[in-house]
Amino acid sequence: MSRDDYVFCIGFEGSTAIVDGRLARAHAGWTAVRLAEAGLFKPALAAALYDGSPVDLDAVLALYNARAGSTARSIDELKRTFGTSGVPDGVKKIIVV
C-alpha cells in the first residue's frame, strides 16, 4: 500500500482499501504537519504513522489539540479517535472513489 493510498484511505472491505481520490489528488505528497495545519487531522495522523516519525506524531497531536476544540492526551488516544493504528498487512486491492 503506497503512502498516499494509506493517508487518504477512508475504509476497508476485506483486503480492499477504499481511497478518497478527490482528497488524494488535492493533497498527495503533503507532509503530516502540512496536512494537520490544513485541518486534515486523520490524513495527518496516517502520514505520520506511515512515515514512522515520532516528531511528526507529536506535532500532529499538538496541532490537533490547539485547533480541534478537543483534547487528546496521547498519540494512542488520537489513534482511537480516528480509528487508525498503522498500515495494515494483507491489502491486495485499492479502489479509488
What does this structure look like?
Strands 1-2-3 form a 3-stranded mixed β-sheet. A hairpin with a 2-residue loop joins strand 1 and strand 2. Helix 4 (41-51) runs antiparallel to helix 5. The protein has one domain. It is globular and about 35 Å long. With 97 residues, the protein is α+β, with helices and mostly antiparallel strands. It is built from 6 helices and 3 strands. It has helices spanning 3-7, 21-27, 32-37, 41-51, 54-67, 75-82; strands at residues 9-13, 16-19, 93-96.
Provide keyphrases for this structure.
alpha+beta, 13% strand, 97 residues, 53% helix, three-stranded mixed β-sheet
Describe the secondary-structure layout.
Layout: H1 3-7, E1 9-13, E2 16-19, H2 21-27, H3 32-37, H4 41-51, H5 54-67, H6 75-82, E3 93-96
Parallel strand pairs: 2-3
Antiparallel strand pairs: 1-2
Helix pairs in contact: 4-5
Give a quick rundown of the structure.
The protein is of the alpha+beta class and 97 residues long. The chain contains 6 helices and 3 strands; from the N terminus they run αββαααααβ.
- Mean pLDDT figure: 95
Number of separate domains: 1
Please give the oligomerization state of what you see. Answer: single chain
Number of helices: 6
Number of strands: 3
Note the overall shape.
globular
Low-confidence stretches: none
Measured by DSSP, the beta-strand proportion falls in 5-15%
Judged by helices, strands and strand pairing, the structural class is alpha+beta
Going across the biggest sheet, name each strand in turn: 1-2-3
Run of helices and strands: HEEHHHHHE
The biggest beta sheet is recorded as: 3 strands, mixed
